[in-house]
Amino acid sequence: MRTSKKATEKLRQTDVDKLTLGQRIRLIRGDKTQTAFGEILGKSQDAVSVYETDQVAPSLSTLAKIAEMGNVTVDWLFHGPSHKGRRDNEQSFVFAGHVLKPKTPEWQVLEKIVNMNDEKIKEKIVELVASFINIEKKDKAQ
Q1: What is the DSSP string of 3-52?
Q2: Can you give the CATH number for the domain in which 21 is found?
Q3: Do 19 and 88 fall into the same domain?
Q4: Which of 56, 74, 88, 124 is most buried, with most CB under 10 Å away?
């Protein structure tokens, strides 16, 4: 089963607390196919499909691998970033496989870009950010 790009993007924009275990696994899979993701986990494409559709929960060892791949905890896979018993009640969202929280620099930049109307300026911003990233990579290489 391959999720459409539109469905995947909608999932990425959803409040992470409202997602199921399978949906969080899907976010971590990102742009990889279920087959490629399964190979990394040592599982079949069918296994990945039933995990993502919440038909079967992965074993604890598989959950640990998935959590490591997504740079999250197993607790996050089950409960999301804020659940009963935790003080962090701010809404978090997943974007391109990363949890974003309000008030972080990443959040602020994305919020400003999303609210812009001029597509040409948005493209220039992307080019500018890419050039800063390239400069940083060159500085680290030296």
Answers
A1: --HHHHHHHHHSBGGG--HHHHHHHHHTTS-HHHHHHHHT--HHHHHHHH
A2: 1.10.260.40
A3: yes
A4: 74
Q: How far apart are CA 5 and CA 115, in angstroms?
A: 22
Instruction: Give the span between the Cα atoms of 26 and 47, in whole angstroms.
Output: 13
Residue pLDDT, tens place only, 125-134: 889 988 988 8
The verdict on 10 and 80 lying in the same domain is: yes
Verdict on whether the full-model pTM lies above 0.70: no
- Is the Cβ–Cβ distance between 125 and 41 less than 8 Å? no
pLDDT confidence band for 70 (50 / 70 / 90): confident
Print the domain residue range for 141: 103-142
